[in-house]
């Protein structure tokens, strides 16, 4: 099948559309340009809509239409997935139109734009933290909003992402054999996310890391480090009475106690030989 005619027709169509927009953009009739900006927005041609909105704003600012046009202007960037600019425009909307019935929505959308920029767990989580901060501000500012439930769910999703990132970092320390760093990192995950469904696992991993650290330590340091293992095991037992890791934790506690008892016996034996 010869596709050349189809390709040519497509190129001609693009050229015609481009020429049409160019004529609209160069027009000095700002009423007409405003109408066309609205039309491009309605047709989901957000790139052309934003250009026209920007061009007519100086002429509609201060009029009754300005608020609605600015609202659509912000959403044009959002729908084009330019979340960085959209966030700033939603913020500006709230600041410029604080009494608008759209102000609450734009306040939420500002935070949501940060959420849309939140990356995978192995990348920097600045936007994730910012999302949580702004969603909490939204909840505090609009406690009766229908969007509070969504805001709370997004905070939970962000918290889960941060939890996963911290866990992966701790696990990496362990896999690399940096057991002290792993123990501290797992302990931080446990402390920072006490209500997590995996809280007992984080505590278990803390114990396992401290145990490996004690094993790898110089003899003169082992006593205090096995005592640390036992202390962590006791804390685990107090906090998690029904954990699937309880049996393993008890083993670490027993092994550590055995080591300390053997060490005590050896020291007593050496003392008697003197």
TrEMBL record:
Q: Which Pfam families match?
A: YfiO
PROSITE patterns under this entry? Answer: PROKAR_LIPOPROTEIN
Q: Where is the Outer membrane lipoprotein BamD-like domain?
A: 36-217
Which key words are in the record? Cell outer membrane, Membrane, Signal
InterPro entries hit by this protein: BamD (IPR017689), BamD-like (IPR039565), TPR-like_helical_dom_sf (IPR011990)
Which top-rank group of organisms is this from? Bacteria
- As recorded in UniProt, coiled-coil segments are none
What is this protein identified as?
Answer: Beta-barrel assembly machine subunit BamD
**Annotated source species:** Hydrobacter penzbergensis
Question: What is the taxonomic lineage of the source species?
Answer: Bacteria, Pseudomonadati, Bacteroidota, Chitinophagia, Chitinophagales
């Amino acid at each position: 099948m010869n596709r050349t005619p189809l390709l040519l027709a497509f190129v001609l169509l693009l050229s015609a559309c481009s020429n049409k927009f160019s004529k609209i953009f160069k027009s000095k009739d700002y009423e007409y340009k405003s109408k066309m900006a609205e039309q491009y927005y309605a047709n989901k041609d957000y790139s052309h809509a934003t250009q026209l909105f920007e061009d007519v704003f100086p002429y509609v600012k201060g009029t009754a239409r300005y608020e609605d046009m600015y609202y659509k202007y912000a959403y044009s960037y959002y729908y084009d997935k330019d979340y960085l600019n959209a966030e700033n425009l939603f913020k500006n909307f709230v600041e410029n139109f604080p009494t608008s019935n759209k102000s609450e929505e734009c306040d939420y959308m500002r935070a949501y734009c940060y959420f849309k920029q939140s990356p995978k767990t192995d990348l920097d989580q600045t936007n994730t933290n910012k999302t949580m901060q702004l969603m909490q501000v939204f909840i505090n500012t609009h406690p009766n909003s229908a969007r509070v439930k969504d805001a709370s769910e997004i905070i939970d999703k962000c918290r889960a992402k941060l939890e996963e990132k911290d866990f992966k970092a701790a696990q990496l320390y362990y896999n690399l054999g940096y057991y002290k760093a792993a123990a501290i990192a797992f302990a931080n995950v446990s402390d920072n996310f006490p209500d997590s469904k995996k809280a007992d696992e984080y505590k278990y991993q803390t114990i396992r890391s401290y145990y490996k650290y004690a094993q790898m330590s110089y003899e003169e340091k082992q006593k205090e480090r096995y005592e640390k293992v036992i202390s962590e095991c006791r804390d685990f037992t107090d906090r998690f009475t029904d954990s699937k890791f309880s049996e393993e934790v008890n083993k670490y506690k027993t092994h550590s106690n055995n080591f300390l008892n053997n060490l005590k016996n050896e020291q007593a034996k050496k003392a008697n030989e003197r």
